[in-house]
Automatic annotation (TrEMBL):
It is found in: Cell membrane. This is Cytochrome c oxidase assembly protein. The keyword Iron-sulfur does not apply. The lineage of its organism: Bacteria, Bacillati, Actinomycetota, Actinomycetes, Micromonosporales. It is a multi-pass membrane protein. It comes from Micromonospora globbae. Residues 275-295 are annotated as: Disordered.
Length: 295
């Protein structure tokens, strides 16, 4: 491994510091835009009418988690081992992304834009190509493909090591994780008017879980290190196996719980819509015939 000169280390520290500031400014602008849009909606239609308070809290929680994952104890843990880095990745993908998606940020962020940009966005949304992309099947395929691609590409040895060596690549990696997760969970947890039909959402979540499980299993059961030793902890094989488990178990549990929740809510809604069809098909028929005889 080539030696790192003091000048190179200093340049890397300056680059990392500038990127940290830029990232903080970008996140602050995102939060400010969302807050402005929500304030405008609440002023027009009353608090909680379009964007409930719990959605605002979810978005704020997502912003906090996103910032916490890139600083403090999690960032320190990520610098020490592959398992620590995987904890950081799963925090971004399984906590920050879903919380941001639950914030239903599309309308608030569009309202925070200047009027000219809002008109352009409206034209883009009404374009035939955009309408085709917003079809349930297309949305599900796109969201699942992006999430799977982001997860697999950034955990291949070459991109992963590049993210370790270059702060710019590291920031791009984390932005991809948050954006891919946000895109995946938005049609499941977002505003009701933009949600996928429950059967499509179930297929999306189940189909996304399988490639993630395969990658986690590959890391867990690999008999030797897949990554360069400098990217792993003091016990390379154990560190890699723990990282695989940290991807495998939390991802499967989170997606399975969400899938079952969507499926059960769908069944309950069907039951409320068709109460007469619940129960044995013959129930109530003798009483109905007896009532007819009495008449």
């Amino acid at each position: 491994m080539p030696a790192v000169t003091p000048a190179a280390a200093a340049d890397g520290s300056v680059e990392a510091g500038l990127l940290t500031i830029l990232l903080a400014v970008a996140v602050a602008l995102l939060a400010a835009g969302y807050g402005r849009g929500v304030h405008e909606l609440w002023a027009r239609r009353g608090a909680g009418e379009v964007v409930p308070v719990w959605r605002v809290a979810a978005f704020g929680g997502g912003v906090v988690v996103m910032l916490a994952a890139d600083s403090g104890p999690l960032a320190t843990l990520a610098r020490g081992s592959f398992a620590g880095h995987m904890t950081q990745h799963m925090t971004l993908m399984l906590v920050a992304g879903p919380l941001l998606a639950a914030g239903a940020a599309g309308l608030p962020l569009s309202l925070a834009c200047p009027a000219s940009l809002r008109r352009r966005l409206a034209r883009v949304r009404s374009a035939p190509a955009t309408r085709r992309l917003r079809r349930p099947a297309t949305t599900a395929l796109l969201a699942g493909a992006v999430q799977t691609l982001v997860l697999w590409v950034w955990h291949l040895p070459a991109p992963y090591v590049a993210a370790l060596d270059r702060p710019v690549v590291h920031v791009v990696e984390h932005v991809c994780f948050v954006a891919g997760s946000w895109l995946l969970w938005a049609p499941v947890l977002g505003a009701a008017r933009h949600r996928l039909p429950p059967p499509v959402a179930v297929l999306l979540l189940a189909g996304t879980m399988l490639p993630a499980s395969a990658l986690g299993a590959a890391l867990t059961f690999a008999p030797q290190p897949i990554y360069p030793l400098r990217a792993l902890g003091s016990d390379p094989v154990a560190d890699q196996q723990l990282a695989g488990l940290l991807m495998w178990a939390p991802m499967d549990v989170a997606v399975l719980v969400a899938t079952l929740t969507v499926f059960l809510r769908w069944l309950l809604r069907l039951q409320r819509q068709q109460p007469g069809e619940v129960g044995p098909p013959e129930a109530g028929r003798p009483a109905a015939r007896a009532e007819g005889v009495l008449r």
